[in-house]
Amino acid sequence: MKQAKLAIITCITKDKTLIKKLAQVYPQTNFLSKIEEKIKADILIIDEYTIRSNRPITSTATRLYISPKFYIQGTKKPLDFMHLQGMIDKALNNQKIVPNLLNHKTLRHFCYETFDVEQNICVISADLKTSEFIGVFEYNQEALEIMEAVLRWRTFSIDRLVFILERIPNFNGAFVWMQTFFRYKTIGTGQVLLNKKKPIKSTLKSIDHIFLTYKPIDSKKELTKESPQFSQTCVRLTRLKDKLLLKRFNATLNPESIERSIENMDTFLQSKKASQKARANIRVILTELLTNSLEHVHIGISYEQKQRLLKNARLEKFINKVLRLKQRSSLARIELFATTVNSKQMYYLKIADGGTGFEGSVFFDKKVPPERFHGRGIAMVRHISNGVFFCKKGGCVVVLLEKKGLI
Amino acid sequence: MKIICNHNLVTIEGLVDSTKSSEEIKQQIKAVAKETQSLVIDFKDSFAVTSSLIGYFLGLIQKDKKKIKIIARNQDLFELFEELELIAVFGVTRS
């Protein structure tokens, strides 16, 4: 897979009034620059509403603007994904795309004043002086389609997805988001912002039980906040309806007790005739996550400190010393639930350890250099599961697992 | 889990799915590494390893300047190394 970073920023809505509203919010917030700063992407795929902003885009990334009204020379053909792939390839190799004199201002003019129908996509190179138009698209959620296509190619990695989700009857971005993350584990980070105070019934219904923020939020507030919103790679799972608790127990955070807890879970899974592979996966997942809880929550070892301790072969001694000195023990609560995700039976393993959170990108960064002796645990859990989700403020991690072979 | 050591070849049969199994492997490899500069670690059955074991292997390469070659016979394990971008570091092969 190429090392190129690709980000997609999309607004899941067809509501023109909303698009205008978002465009009003956007210039005041440096929303896109925040994304750009954090991602340092080679390519950005930017959905329609961002084009309406007056703010010039300063990123050095090649951008693929997706415009609702872009129309080229009267052709109406479905988006040619092979063509798009070629465009991205060219952009990555710093090749000029078809010469065109469009700049940001004229782009906006073309998008919103000149043409009047259908979707289109405009590829703009980093210097804003060259562009390519890709044919009319037949489906409205083109950003998602592009994302899916890009992921299917498996030649690029998507670094981050940001969806702005609104009150949309009969369509749900979170659902697509979730499905995409299940299907393609190569996506680095995802985030959904919700901008209504009350949960949207149709939205909640269509996403079954997974909601991606703790509570629906005011996106304007969210966007204007100087918060580390975009540096966090974590999302929160809540509203798990129709869940069935299968097993719950506490583990004291010390090496012996962690081993016993894992055995406890394994005995339970064995009694339920779980397959050997499913049991082994859960043992690895619990080993990784409870070790993290022990080291980073109970002992309080930082990422850098762990590297130093490992380098000097002192980690085990250090942990034992701190455990001897600690007067209080900490507990992690482990729960295994059965649930349904879009009619698919799944399980989720929840571990709550009372931690205060962390810089998620550290853990989701799959490119931990070989000089680092640690930092791969979460990537491993993600590899053997159907998804790993963290509470935004720390303290809880949820691992989704398919039913296959489990119980 | 069973660990068989033969000169510089360490064969691991069964699953590596806990801290305990990882520690056992570390102890055996530590003993072998005293005698040789290059090691071949053959995971016959396991489809996963712990991150602590991976860290240990990296330590052997980085700190102790050992050469390590890993045989990941299980496809899932091979893909895990691939995902972690460690194929080249450990010269991971399928057989």
What does this protein structure show overall?
The complex is a heterodimer of chains A (407) and B (95). Chain A starts with a strand and ends in a 5-residue tail after the last strand. Helix content of chain A is 38%, strand content 21%. Chain A has helices spanning 16-25, 31-39, 48-51, 81-92, 104-114, 142-153, 173-183, 201-206, 219-224, 255-271, 276-298, 303-311, 315-325, 360-364, 377-384, and strands at 5-12, 43-46, 62-67, 119-124, 131-137, 157-165, 189-194, 244-252, 331-341, 344-352, 387-390, 396-402. The longest helix of chain A is centred in the C-terminal third of the chain and has 23 residues, at 276-298. The model of chain A is unreliable at 1-5, 10-40, 47-60, 66-84, 95-142, 162-177, 188-241 and 359-366 (pLDDT under 50). With 407 residues, chain A is α/β, with parallel strands linked by helices. In chain A, strands 5-4-3-2-1-6-7 form a 7-stranded mixed β-sheet. In chain A, strands 8-9-10-12-11 form a 5-stranded antiparallel β-sheet, covered by helices on one side. Chain A has 15 helices and 12 strands. Chain B has helices at residues 19-35, 51-62, 75-83, 87-90, and strands at residues 2-6, 9-13, 38-43, 67-72. Chain B contains 4 helices and 4 strands, in the order E-E-H-E-H-E-H-H. Chain B is α/β, with parallel strands linked by helices. Chains A and B meet through helix 10, helix 11 and helix 15 of A and helix 2 and helix 3 of B.
